[in-house]
Amino acid sequence: TMSKEISIIAKNIKKYRAGMAISQDKLSKLAGITLHTITKIESGATPDPRIETMAKIAKGLGVSIDDLMKK
Questions:
Q1: Looking at the predicted structure, is the pLDDT value of residue 2 above 70?
Q2: What torsion, rounded to 10 degrees, do the Cα atoms 16, 56, 43, 26 define?
Q3: Closest Cα to residue 58, out of 43, 41, 44, 46?
């Protein structure tokens, strides 16, 4: 089962990505991580992304880690 926090992270990544009108592939390049990692996090398949991964995604989206975890 997916924890509430993770679904929030996944939702926020999708929200910010949509706001920038970029694909998962583009975000993976901006964040310097694999597309596989992004798709797994957004789908909830990776229930607790590593803080390093979160930091890279946040940087790629131009937001803070806190922004990604905000309800």
A1: no
A2: 70
A3: 41
Give the side-chain half-sphere CA count within 13 A for 9: 28
> Are 14 and 52 in contact, with CB atoms under 8 Å apart?
no
**Helices 24-31 + 35-43 axis angle, to 10:** 120
Tens of pLDDT along 40-63?
Answer: 999 989 878 999 999 999 999 999
- Longest CA span, the chain: 29
Cα 67 from Cα 35, distance rounded (Å): 21
